[in-house]
Write a structure and sequence with these properties.
With 421 residues, this protein is α/β, with parallel strands linked by helices. It folds into two domains: 214 residues, Glucose-6-phosphate isomerase like protein, domain 1 (Rossmann fold); 162 residues, Glucose-6-phosphate isomerase like protein, domain 1 (Rossmann fold), CATH 3.40.50. The protein has 15 helices and ten strands. The chain is globular, with a radius of gyration of 23 Å. It starts with a strand and ends with a helix.
């Protein structure tokens, strides 16, 4: 099986071998600490051992319920915000399956217009929902769940309960709602934070409803876990990624851009943004994560990236195995693109990626490339685990807690007060 690999561009003046080796020697003990499920973070490391929440029994229960829903649903509404829906949305949008229900999203905004249009889109369709909230205090998913629950009760009466799943912590008010009303309950583990929840009920149940092979995804994550546990720091892909970005931060590169030429990565990049921003953005530290959705964004921000202020470094995502093909056919119309005749659009897109990587690298932008052998469930599981582990290491290198997010609560306190809670 081919591996996901990471490589650097030619900006050796910024990341020379001596600097990387010195940094690695100084921080290699962090890799051992992270793999050991260190005591200081034990209440946040439920994702580290994948079998704890994604073992065979858990996967069977998830898949069985998902199959029931798939057999009847036209639409499945995923209610959640931030870490409660980002991983599932990333996989669902990147790996669309045939004969799957339409997946819609709620609980990620407070727009009346959005909710009215969503309700209209449900008319005449068989609807199921899943409300995800760890403590069920966040207003966005709470309001959306109430509106959609009432909608289902109005349409289906006593049958509404069978169409409602909730994912929360045992003992929470959401758990009590499920007990009192007969809703299906999935567990949001207390020892997993939202942004690390891809590989438990939180992420896996919606993925399974969408037809994604969650067993294959989990297997990929397990094999990445095994790989990271045996690779020494200087070869370890997660450690190397964390080390490169911390070294660049020390040189005043304050923004990291995830760049990709495959639109299917867009919501994965949104998950990645949350992972980095919420894990590292504290104590006046952290690299600000941004996205280059190429080639479209090359025609907007491309000029700044190429010749603007030197504060950005890039991480390119590059899939090697062709999974789609479109040959540019010739015709008798003079459009001046005859030089493309016979070319595969897949190859043209690959050339655009490499040309951009080379131009940015030669123009002075530190560039990394993450090479992914294939865009499927197995490698998606690998990417989820690799980035979660890398962010854990990167936070340790930065000397911040990669699992808390106290700053997020400030706006909530203001909002609760204004609303009279």
């Amino acid at each position: 099986m081919k591996k996901i690999e990471i490589s650097l561009g030619d900006q050796s003046k910024l990341l020379n071998l001596d600097a990387i080796e010195n940094f690695t020697q100084k921080h290699t003990h962090y890799l051992d600490e992270a793999l050991s499920k260190e005591k200081i973070y034990e209440n946040s490391l439920g994702w580290l051992d994948i079998d704890e929440w994604a073992g065979e029994v858990a996967l069977k229960r998830i898949q069985d319920k998902a199959n029931e829903v798939r057999n009847d649903a036209d639409v499945f509404v995923l209610i959640g915000v931030g870490g409660s829906n980002q991983a599932a949305r990333a996989a669902i949008s990147a790996l669309p399956q045939e004969n799957a229900p339409e997946i819609l999203y709620a609980g990620n905004n407070l727009s009346a217009d959005y909710m009215n249009k969503l309700l209209k889109a449900l008319e005449g369709k068989s609807v199921y929902i899943d409300a995800i909230a760890k403590n069920f205090e966040t207003i966005e998913p709470g309001v959306s769940f109430r509106v959609l629950r009432q909608y289902l009760e109005k349409r289906y009466g006593s049958g509404a309960a069978g169409r409602i799943a909730v994912t929360g912590t045992k003992g929470s008010s959401l758990y009590q709602l499920a007990l009192d009303n007969g809703y299906t309950f999935f567990t949001f583990p207390e020892n997993i934070g939202g942004r690390y929840s891809a590989l438990c009920d939180v992420g896996l149940y919606p993925m399974a409803v969408a037809g994604i092979d969650i067993a294959k995804l989990v297997q990929g994550a397990k094999e990445m876990r095994e790989r990271l546990s045996v690779e020494p720091a200087e070869e370890n892909i997660a450690f190397r990624y964390a080390a490169y970005r911390n070294l660049l931060q020390q040189k005043d590169y304050r923004l990291e851009m995830m760049s990709f030429f495959e639109p299917r990565f867009y919501y994965f990049s949104r998950w990645w943004i949350q992972m980095l921003a919420e894990s590292e953005g504290k104590d006046g530290k952290g690299v600000y994560p941004v996205v280059g959705n190429f080639s479209e964004d090359l025609h907007s921000i491309g000029q700044f990236v190429q010749e603007g202020r030197r504060m950005i470094f890039e991480t390119f995502l590059d899939v090697t195995e062709r999974d789609s093909s479109l040959i540019i056919a010739g015709d008798d119309k003079k459009d001046y693109f005859d030089y493309l005749e016979g070319n595969d659009l897949w190859n043209i897109n690959k050339i655009a990626l490499q040309s951009t990587f080379d131009a940015h690298d030669k123009g002075g932008i530190p560039c990394m490339k993450l090479t992914i052998p294939k865009l499927d469930e197995y490698y998606f599981g690998q990417m989820f685990y690799m980035f979660m582990f890398a962010v854990y290491l990167s936070g340790k290198m930065l000397k911040v807690n990669p699992f808390d997010q106290g700053g997020v609560e400030d706006y909530k306190k203001n909002m609760f007060k204004a609303l009279g809670k």
